[in-house]
Amino acid sequence: MSDMTGNGGHGKKNNRFSIAVLAGDGIGPEVIAVARRVVEAASGSEGASFEWTEYPFGAAHYLRTKEVLPDSAIAEIGGHSAMMLGAMGAPSVKPGILERGILLTLRFVFDQYINLRPAMSLPNVPTPVPLNGGKIDSVVIRENTEDLYMGLGDISSDGTLNAPMNLSRGGYKLKGNLSLSITPGMSYAAQVALNTSHGVSRIARYACETAIKRGENKVTIVTKSNAAPALYGFFEDIAKGVIEERQLKWEVVNVDALCYHLVRRPDAYGVLLCPNLFGDIVSDLQAGLAGGMGTAAGGNIGDGVSMFEPVHGSAPDIAGTGKANPVAAILSGALMLRHLGLDSSAARVEKAVSSYLMSASGSDLPFEFGGSRTCAQVGDGVLKKI
Ligand code: NAD
Ligand code: IPM
Ligand code: MN
To answer: Do 133 and 267 belong to one domain?
Structure first.
């Protein structure tokens, strides 16, 4: 795989960037179209230019061709500076085929071990829980390659199960077999979760760097070692060691209690270091507390080519209605610009979103925030502020 994951020197030549675009399903293409326009407009002042290569993968392509994501496309995508992804998954395709087959495959193949998911209060955006003057400014640092996401497991119909446990991740290869039988015979499912010292220490290091950059001295470790002491006790211990080495403080909060605390005090947390599954769940909760799924930006970051995508999915319930909020995709574009070294362009995007929201009243807001502006109209509003 190493030839696939090499990213051609980030594809950057003379401030020219090539971006692989996988807009995907549902509202994915709607919000990505807006994010692209904003990224282009904001980066002009830094003399950057973008070349976009569109890939058709997603539900429609799969239903037409039975192709999910061919190796040849993976190799080509690896030659780009970065990727932007909308969302994968649609009611017309069995869950997992596109989500695992495209989204998770890309995270794993390119070893994008960091899932960076900031959550913040945005001006004029109503929140479901009163903030009493406080502000949400937290960031989920989600391990992005391990835990229950390894894809190891199977279903037994008769009581016996033999599931191969072979895979490779950046940094290691796993080999083996899970062999089980149950008495009395019945059907069951087993799915193996793994956290490795390699995987946990590198994400814990990134959480520490994030805390330091934010001027904070604490990392909150989000686990559930009371119920799964091997899997999450291990995660905790490795993370604590890394955090102490960096002379930072840690606190451990069980994920159930964290959800409770977050709902009561959404502004009380900074860096939340999470195993893969809890990071997935907590980042949706954070998005909801900040005002909606359409607020939440994300980046899948590794040492090779990285991928930027909103936290939300394809939202089939509002696809095609114009009600999709593009703010999350736009802010994911800002994360991409910063990753590419275009810091002032990233800041321009973030400022433009804030000043658009600040000057928007009532009906000028996106649908999700109680207004009546469509996805494209919100894009126009943000572009005017650039
Ligand atoms: P979802 O995030 O698509 O939607 C949850 C709710 O939030 C829906 O009510 C939706 O209308 C709303 N919402 C989401 N994004 C919004 C936006 N930008 N503006 C306004 N409202 C928004 O989650 P789901 O319904 O569980 O998943 C739908 C499909 O997307 C499934 O196939 C799922 O597997 C897939 N999915 C893909 C990704 C991804 O590719 N990154 C992420 C999550 C879910
Ligand atoms: C996300 C999504 C994915 C995940 C799904 C679609 C596999 O929910 O990016 O948060 O669980 O990581
Ligand atoms: Mn999710």
So the answer is: yes
